[in-house]
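Translate sequence into structure tokens.
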Amino acid sequence: MLESIILSLIGGLTLFLYALNYLSDSLKAVTGERMQFYLNKFTGNLFSGIASGTVITTLLDSSSAVIIMTIALVKSRALTFRQAIGIVMGANIGTTISSQIIALDVGKYSSVLMAVGFLLLMLAKKRLPKNIGRVLLGFGLIFFGLYVMEESVAPLRQSPRFAHWMQALENPLKGVGIGALVTLIIQSSSATVSMIIALGAKKLITITAGIAVMLGAELGTCSDTLLASIGRSRQAVKTGIFHLLFNVISIIVALILFNPFVQLVSAISGNAPLERQIANAHVLFNCIGVVLFIPVVPLAERLLNQLIREKQTIRQAA
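Result follows.
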């Protein structure tokens, strides 16, 4: 039984990760160069930058893709580090939209989206309907991959060993560690949060453990953006480090106030299903983190500017 569960889970996860990349590429094809134009146009101040990062991440369904694209734009001097700060913070909010959609339990209808998308892709003559077909097919594959993961873990309800392991994740530090490790391996916080939601849908994880692993996913997702900043300009490196700093501080605050945060999620969610409560926790954590961090942004910006100076500034100082 264990072998079939693992194989099904790997299959569903692989399909989910492929669908995420496929959907991101498809949406980039629809938006084209306009995405870069809007990023540059609507990031005049911190709040417009946060709004832009939220909207674009919602569209692309990948905070990592948006932040990596932002780092590339900062390197090419199309964006400044100050503009990038708002986009990074907004990307953390935008990525929570997908968890809300996933918690709707739309996996059973994924075949409809895949069928409509495939027909548009194959039969449409014009570019726009074909691109819409790609987007629908991508969403359908995401939901189907999630559905496969949900069904694959269902037999684990009868496993005392698995139940004992999941209870251990109620320790916030252990949960954060596991969430960070899984995200580091699969390079997708969305996939990690989706797996937590899938476990919640089958009542295989508690809200406490789910929130702890979710916090770990937010830490693990910093790895790919840090890698993307290696060898880039000083401004681009500061963007990658700001993402890490923002997430680490938010996670530390959440761990300090872990029990009150869990109670807040439960109070807001009411009698909602467990998967919905986990999705709500994802939204609350990122939104509260952005709101609390806004007053600290000028200090963080000055600190990073001091620590990572431009080469010209160093010569002048010498």
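Note: Residues 313-318 have pLDDT under 50 and may be disordered.
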